[in-house]
Amino acid sequence: MRGELLTPEQVIERLRDSLGDAILSHEMKEYTMGVRKKKAYREIWIEIDRSAFRKAVEEIFKLDYPHLHFIMGEDGGGDSIKMIYGFALYHGFPWKQVSIVLKFDLPKSELVLPTITDLMPGAETNEREIREMLGIEFEGLKNKRHLFLPDDWPEGKYPWRRDEYGVEDMVKHTHKSIKEIRRGE
Amino acid sequence: MAKTQYYIPVGPIHPALKEPIRVEAEVEGEKIVKVDVKRGFAHRGIEYMGMKRNAIQTLYLSERICGICSISHPYAFVIGSEKALGIEAPPRAQYIRPIIAELERIHSHILWLGVVAHEMGFDSLLFWTWKGREKVLDLLELLTGNRINYSVFMIGGVRRDIKESHIKAIKETIDFYRIFTEEMKDVFLSDPVYKARTRGVAQLSKEMALKLNVCGPVARAAGLRMDVRQDNPYDAYADIGVRAVVPQDIVGEARGDAYDITLVRLYEIEQSLDIIEFCIDNMPEGKIMAIPNYVVLLSKIKKTVGEGIGMHEAPRGEVVHYFKYDGTRDGPAVWKVVAPSYNNINSWAPLLLGAEVADIPIVVAYIDPCMCCNDRVAVVRDSDGRTLDYSLIRRKAVEKTMKIKKELGVIE
After folding, report:
1. Which of A29, A92, A120 sits opposite B231 (nearest CB)?
2. Shortest alpha-carbon distance between residue B208 and chain A (Å)
3. Residue B209 reports pLDDT greater than 70
4. Distances in Å between the alpha carbon of B186 and those of B114, B125, B192, B343?
5. Is B153 helix (H, G, I), strand (E, B) or coil?
6. What is the number of structural domains in chain B?
7. Residue A101, domain extent
8. What is the pTM of this model?
9. Total structural domains in chain A?
C-alpha cells in the first residue's frame, strides 16, 4: 500500500526533480535524542516559490499519504504573509518519520491559495482556522463557516494579523499585567 | 406529506457533553441524515496571548490550554523550544519528564474509560474506575504539588526532582495499577453489554483515519501505527524503544470501532506502567536544569533566531507546537498549537452520518474530546456564601498535600 521508505536526502532529491528552481532553499535539521542510546532524526525545511505550492503538496502525497501537522501563517507586519505547512511522511516507522515544512511568501495583495481538502478532507479544519485568523481565501474550500470565532465576528478583522486588519483595538486585558492596567497603558 | 425530517441540536451545554461544543443533526426517525459540528465555544485566543508574553509565561500559559492533559502542551513546548534554542535537558530531567507524562496518560485513560461507561448508562462502572483513578492523582500531587497543572517542566529541564522516598510511592502505585488494569480489562472487554454497545459503533476504517488526519488512540484503533514516541522519539522514550499499541497486535485485526479504542487505551495503561518502571530503574544522577537561572534563559531566548516543531504524544494523540523566536523578543514571535482533538473531531461528522440518535454520545465520547478548556476564572464560595480568597485556598491545598505525604510515608 505504501511506497518505499526514502531517506530525507532522497525525499529532497525527488522534490528537486519535479519542482526544479521553485525550491528557493532547503535545510536539513538534525536532532539527536536519547540519553543512553543516542540516535538522530531529521526534518526537512524548504522554502519554495508560491506558484509551486500546489505541485509541491501533490508531490508529497505521491511519496506517501502524509499526516498534516499544522498550517500556520506568520504576519510580520510587512507586505506579505509567510505560510508554513507542516507534513509528516512515513509515520508508523520508528525513527523514520520525516517532517517536511513548506514555507512560502504570500503577498497581502493576493491572499488566495488552492485548497488541499480534495487530497485530504481532514485539512478542512486547518484551512478554516487560517481563513478566519489571517483572512486567506482557499479556492475550493467548501465549508467557509467560522471555526473558532463566533458567527457574528465583524468582517475584515483577523486576530493574527499585525496590520490595520488586526484586533489590537478589540482587545482589552488579555495579555496585560495588573500593573500595566493600573498604570493605564 | 407529513414532515419527516427533524432538527436536533446537541450542545453547547448538554448533559452528554462535559465541555461546550455543538452537534447539529437532522434526523429521519432514529437515523441521522445530516450533521454539522460547531466548535469554538471555549476559544480564548491563547495563541494571541502567548505571542505577547515571554517564553516562561507562555510555557505556563500552555499548561492552561487543557486541564486534563496539562503536561502534554508544556512537553511539546519544551521539546520545540529546546530544538529551536539548541539546548539539551540534563539526563536526569529527560527521565523525570516521561514519568510525569505517563502518569498523566494513566489518569487520562482511566477518566475516558469512566466517561464512556457513563455515556452508555453504566454509572456504577464510572464510579469504580474514577475511584481507582484517585490513586494516580494523589501520586501526581505528591510528586508535583498539584493534582492537575503540575508546573514542573521548564525549557531545558524540570523544576522538581524525584527523591528516593518518592520512588517507593511510585512503585506502590505501579503495583496497584497492574492489578487494577487487569480488573478493568476483565470488566470492559469481557462484558457482553459493553461489547454489544461498542462493537461496530463509531467505526473508522484505516483509509478514513488517514484522510481525516486523525491521530493518537483514534488512529491506532483503526490500525495505523502512529505514535510520536515511536516515530520521532525524544527524552527517555528514545532509550526505551516505545512501540505503538494497535489492536491487530493484540487480537489479530483492527476494526477501528469504540470497542477497539477501549482495547488500545487499556493496553496503553500497561505500556505506561512499563515506561515508568524503566525510568525509575534507570534514572541517571545529576542536575535537573540545563540553565537554572531564568534571567539567563530569557536573555538567551531573546538572542535566538530560530524555529522548531515540538511534538509529544498526549493521551489523546499528537500535540504539535510550532515556534519561531525572532531575536527581538524573549517570547515566541509565532506560536501555533495543534491539539489532538483539533484533528480528531474531524471524525464526528462522517461517523454520525447514518448512525442512530442514541449513538451520538458514544461517537462524541470515543475520541475523548477536550475542547481546550481555557476558561480559568473560578470563584469559590463556602456554605455561608462568603467568597474564599486565594491565600485560604492555597493554604488548604498545601495542608492536603502534606496529609497525602504523611499517608504515603514520604519524608522530604
Report:
1. A92
2. 9
3. yes
4. 15, 12, 11, 31
5. strand
6. 2
7. 8-164
8. 0.88
9. 1
